[in-house]
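Following up on my earlier thread - several people asked me to post the actual chain instead of describing it. Fair enough. Here it is, all 360 residues.
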Amino acid sequence: MAAAPYYRPLALLLPLLCLGLLHADSAASITAGTPDGSELWGYVEVRPKAHLFWWYYKSPQRTSAPGKPGPTVLWLQGGPSASGIGLGNFQEIGPLDVDLKPRNSTWLQKADLIFLDNPVGTGYSYVENDTLFVTTDWQQAADATTLLKAIIREVPTLQGSPLFLVAESYGGKYAATLGVAVARAVRAGELNVTLAGVALGDNWISPEDFTLSYTQQLLSVSRLDDNAGDEASKRAEMVKKQIAAGQWVASQESWNDLLGFIATKSGNVDVYNFLLDSGMDPMSVDSSTGSSLSNLQAKKYSAYLSSQDSSSNTIDGNMNGVIKQKLKIILKDFKWGEQSDSVYFALVNDFMKPRIDDAS
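Reply from S.P.:
Thanks for posting it. Predicted structure:
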């Protein structure tokens, strides 16, 4: 449930610079990584002039036992158009936080991790023509499946690793359709992976159910009074009717109006946490200690951090500064953004479509 700022396209030709490994193959991909192979990242041209960016982390806890291979988590961010490379990685489950400090609870302790800037046009991903943005969840699923086929060539251990698709918010729609697309590709012999599961968190696979839940939830915690609750319920019912009629754009507009009404009448309740008001950020709580695993990851950034001004040490500053320097395959004048207006609005006709049947 997010709006989206920022987008700037990247040119076709990327400089052939890397840290450690560089590889260009027949699938029009560019891959770089750390010398020890614990991290790989790169671009895959999933369609002509449409390029997806990915980043792989190998868990130091990965087992080499053939009978019990370690799992791999493919993280899918929401939005639509939120950057998994920046947000899912550094704000949520990766080895380092937004200040590039070690994270205690990184999922890398339990699994290999793959982050995507998905769909094309999100984060470091880009298109060379605005007509190439995806307009349906199924198109992003096709692109992500093509990406997986390319990643397997770069990370051969992925073939024997149980693959889990994990998503939040609008990413739940990505995971539902991608799970179906991957299963079909496996059955057709086009993709050699073991799809072990799909995990959905606060997922947007049923916009109608989400919309209808707002009023009762906010009434129960006294964030709306009865009069506001009655009006919110009427507006939610309008969204339901428009969804049933296949009026996708109109239903999204009505849904946005409902959120605006709720914000006005509730004292700007945070749409993600009714205990908070908009602007209160629980992610700002600082953790000064980290595990030895995360400290190993932090050392890889120390050379870059020492040359950075502290004022730029934010998610946006880091992604366009220290992280961009580390990756080395991003063009100098390219600007990363947390979300993309262009990607968001390209999916306007799919935003309110349910994916319940795909997820069940």
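The chain has two domains: 21-202+293-344, 207-271. That should answer part of your original question.
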